[in-house]
Write a structure and sequence with these properties.
seven-stranded antiparallel sheet, 218 residues, alpha+beta, single chain, elongated
Length: 218
């Protein structure tokens, strides 16, 4: 039965470059997963929408999705290649870039090999840090975003509104604007794993999971 069968998998540490405090995810994924499926996994793990261009850089070669930008694929290769084809060494890194006008760069380093159930070919083993809004102007904007989106700061701003003589309509408008800037609670390992495990049954469409979850799910 598929629920009992296992296949080879790689454990990798995905580290978002250039931000502090660190934002990392440890992922276990079947070796037969393609680069395109790896992309979907990283989108879900970091709570992003899958709306921008992306590229993998592996051993000096570039791999992109020809459906999004043909020149990215022509420069190296497509993203239908399985991870197993690269025969990664333990400790070997590769780079994933997303929203290439910024870009966000995630260094993925192979930590170990193992087994994973055929029925659930991906999971999250550890998670740390608040992933940034993908439309920020890069890592340099992360510290300010982290402060401005802090729920405690949002609550403080709303408390200050209460001291002002505002009519109900204006108070609601300003409070709504403040709350729109507040980031969701830091995603837990379990929550990320649950979203990742929905990917195969959603044809590895990270964008649909983002839409279904809404902002609070990320």
């Amino acid at each position: 039965m598929d629920n009992e069968r296992q296949v080879g998998a790689v454990q990798l540490n995905a580290h978002l470059r250039g931000v502090s405090p660190p934002v990392t995810r440890r992922i276990l994924i079947a070796e037969q997963a393609s680069l395109g499926e790896m992309h979907a996994a990283l989108q879900v793990a970091f709570g992003w929408s899958d709306e921008h261009l992306y590229v993998f850089q592996i051993r000096g070669w570039q791999f992109g999705d020809p459906a999004r930008a043909l020149e990215l694929a022509l420069a190296g290769g497509g993203v239908d290649i399985p991870l197993a084809a690269f025969e990664f060494e333990i400790g070997e890194p590769f780079l994933y870039g997303y929203n290439l006008f910024v870009p966000w760069e995630i260094e993925c380093r192979i930590e170990a090999r193992g087994l994973i159930a055929v029925a659930q070919p991906i999971t999250c083993m550890a998670a740390r840090g608040d992933p940034p809004d993908e439309d920020l102007a890069g890592p340099a904007a992360y510290p300010q975003w982290l402060m401005d989106s802090d729920p405690a700061w949002g609550l403080h701003q709303i408390e200050e509104l209460l001291d002002e003589e505002l009519d109900d309509a204006r108070f609601r408008d300003e409070a709504r604007d403040i709350l729109a800037q507040v980031r969701a609670p830091q995603p837990t390992r379990r929550a990320i794993a649950e979203h990742l495990q929905q990917l195969p049954e959603n044809a590895w469409d990270a964008g649909s999971l983002y839409e279904d979850a809404g902002p609070t799910g990320h």
